[in-house]
# Entry
Amino acid sequence: MSYIFDLFGKSPVSPLQQHMAKVQACVAELGPFFEAVRDGDWERAERQQRLIAELEGEADNLKKDLRLHLPKGWMMAMSRRDLLEVLAEQDRIANKAKDIAGLILGRHMGFPPEIMPHLIEFLNRCIDASRQAQIAIDELDELVETGFHGKEVQLVESMITRLDDIEGDTDALQVQIRGMLFEREKQLPPVDVMFMYRIIGWIGGLADHAQRVGSKLQLMLAR
# Structure
């Protein structure tokens, strides 16, 4: 394996894993951010938002560095296109986290108190989806070493199945929260309601993009 890397360039797998780790660090900070929003502590929320933006920026730098230094002659079981597609989905997770925090802070958005616990549960499940995507990506080096064959493939397939299950949970939670908001929307300012629905959709987008990371990885296994 090291001989192949010497011939065709440094493996981009480790940088891809580092990028996903930074993405997950960014997404995980949404938990404390939403707790601050729930408590109406906008100073703490602002500190968390700055941290999320900083981590997203670091993830963006890792993404750009990987794109610039991805060896064109790299020949492995995983194509250059496959890797770039996985990288793009990972990047969208961090971008979405930054967007969520930025919009909520910018408008000082507060959800109805009876909805907030459910929203945080929904968020945490979406963070679980991103974490599961990271777990799967962390196995990519092992997949490359085995040539995408053997028991490692079965292990990663089980991880992707778990990711799909988590994403299914987030879909159900999203429907529930949308229903709760629908029941109360006539009592709330229409503009606020519009942005609440947008935030709910963006939170769900975290899990959607995480699942797509798994789907791209699954396509690699199929090839």
About this structure: The chain is about 85% helix and 0% strand. The domain at 11-222 is CATH 1.20.58.220 (Methane Monooxygenase Hydroxylase; Chain G, domain 1).
